[in-house]
Amino acid sequence: MKLSPLMKSLGLKYPIFQGGMAWVADGKLAAAVSNAGGLGIIGAGNAPRSVVAEEIATAKKLTNHPFGVNVMLLSPYVKEVVDVILANKDAITVVTTGAGNPSDYVADFKAAGIKVIPVVGSAGLAKMMERVGVDGVIAEGMESGGHVGKLTTMALVPQVVDAVNLPVIAAGGIGDGRGLAASFMLGAEGVQMGTRFLVATESKVHPNYKKAVLKAKDASTIVTGEFAGHPSRVLKNKMAKKYLKIEKAEALKDEPDYAELEEMGSGSLRKAVLDGDQENGSFMAGEISGLVKREQPAAEILAEVATQADELLNGKY
């Protein structure tokens, strides 16, 4: 598979990033993806320095290949997470960012030889990131799991490609070789996949979570938090339906109170990932869930996606 200069500089075999999913993307999963030729990414989420440092140490033990860390910029521990990343600049090749503006940290990362590739949900934000001096952007459509924007991947990616002179990685609703091939046609240099790696053999998510993804169909996800200001795509379950019902009722009031929803959402992702709590857990997953049919090693996922894309692009499919 032909690689762009960015992908070559990252030492990748496949132009595929693994999404930095909070509570899911640990050092073991990141190492497995990197060993297989993709870019494994550790999701820092809201974790403190000690936890992130431990996951980085795990990845360093398990792989000699490049890997990255996703920094959630709204985390109360963001500054200490940045410090631990800089302390491990020998191993960390890329930092991806979400939920905020990474401007305050870009210079330090680049001085350490770490590439910065933020997630963006609009062409305007991509332009802003280009002015800051980032190395590329991940244009993520609303089909993705977890926190989402308003634009679809099909509409977003080509507009971001046209808006900036930066490498663009497509994300959101991509889970097989067809998605990778389509992303190339839209002008992207690679893709980021999250949901597909939820069911990787090396993924630590609870069996109940994996089963929920494998059983999902095209209409099995729902977006909660739109009225409360924190839209997130999750698989439908008792918790998601209750959340949405309360949210809609509060939105009709003159003075909405989302305190109950904040309490419901607190720790709900952890309950899904670690406990497999089917009633109270938030099972974040993308619309691509309906295409995910079996648990596979990360290496098999990457090879399968790349082979299918190659066959399509070369007219053999």
Concise overview:
With 317 residues, the chain is an alpha/beta fold.
In words, what does this structure look like?
The protein is of the alpha/beta class and 317 residues long. The protein has two domains: 5-203 and 293-313, TIM Barrel (Alpha-Beta Barrel), CATH 3.20.20.70; 217-284, no CATH class. It has 14 helices and eleven strands. It has helices spanning 5-9, 27-35, 49-62, 78-87, 103-111, 123-132, 153-163, 177-185, 195-198, 207-215, 238-251, 259-265, 268-275, 298-313; strands at residues 16-18, 40-43, 67-72, 92-98, 115-120, 137-140, 146-147, 168-171, 190-193, 221-224, 232-235. The strands form two sheets. Strands 1-9-8-6-5-4-3-2 form an eight-stranded parallel beta sheet. Strands 7-11-10 form a three-stranded antiparallel beta sheet, with helices on one face. The two termini are 15 Å apart.
